[in-house]
Amino acid sequence: MKRRLLFIFILLVALCVVGLYLFNQYWVHRYDALIQRQAGIYRLDPDLVWSIIYEETYFRPWKIGADGEIGLMQVTPAVGREWAAQTGMRELERQMAADPQGMLSDPEKNIQIGCWYLEKFYEQYRDVPGTEARMVAGYNAGPTRVADWSRSPQGTGRNLTEAEFINNINIASTKNYVTSILERYRSLKSRRARATSSIDKEWKRPARGHGDCIAA
Question: How would you write the pLDDT of the chain (216 residues) with one tens digit per residue?
Fold first, then answer.
C-alpha cells in the first residue's frame, strides 16, 4: 500500500513538473510571432527583442513600471508620443496623447514602439564593437548616458570593446540589466546554433540501404 501511495505521489509530482514546464514554454513564447514581425520591420534580431521583454516584464503586458513605463517592453508615454509624432498620423498622436496606457498596453503596439526605439540605437552603434550591449544600455538608460559610456579614452580615437563599454557603465542597475540580457540572448543563440547543427548532421547522414547490408 505504501509503495502504491509513493508511486502515485511521484506520478503527481512528475505531472505537475511537466505541466509547469509546458505552461512556462507557452507563456514565454506566446508573443513570438509578434516579436518576429516587428523585429523584421526594424531590422533587429528577434532573439534580442525577446530577451529584453523577458528581462523587462517576463511577458506580462499589464505591467506598469515605477517611472510610468508601460507594457511588455516597458515603453514610456514620452517615447510613445515621439513614435506617434514621427508616423505623421494625427489619429495615432491623438490616441497616444489621450490614452497612452491603453495604447501601450496593447502587445503588438508596445512591441512595435519598443522595436522602433531600439532601432535608433542599432543605427547609431551598428558599426562599432559591442553593438548589442550599447543598444540594450541605451534602451534602459537613454541616449545621453550610452554616448557618455561609449567615449574612447582621451587621445586614442578608438572604439571601446564591449567589455570596456560595460565597465564604463556607472549605474549598477543598468550594468546588471545589460549583463543579464546579453547572457540570456547569447545562451539562446547558442542553443539555436546547436539545434541547427544537429538537424544539419541528420540531413547529411547517409541513409543505410541494401548495399550497406551486403557490405556488412
Answer: 777 777 676 777 788 888 888 988 999 999 999 999 999 999 999 999 999 999 999 999 999 999 999 999 999 999 999 999 998 889 999 999 999 999 999 999 999 999 999 999 999 999 999 999 999 999 999 999 999 999 987 767 789 999 999 999 999 999 999 999 999 999 999 988 887 776 666 666 665 554 443 333
pTM of the predicted protein model? 0.86
What domains are there in the chain, each with its CATH number? 34-191 (1.10.530.10)
Q: What is the 3-state secondary structure (H, E, C) of 35-46?
A: HHHHHHHCCCCH
117 neighbors 79 (Cβ within 8 angstroms): yes
- Measured CA to CA, the distance from residue 142 to residue 169 in angstroms comes to 12
Q: How far is Cα 70 from Cα 77, in angstroms, rounded to an integer? A: 8
Side-chain-side CA neighbours of residue 56 (13 Å)? 28
Buried b / exposed e over 44-58, threshold 16 CB at 10 Å, is bbbbbbbbbbbbbbe
Dmax (CA) for the chain in angstroms is: 80
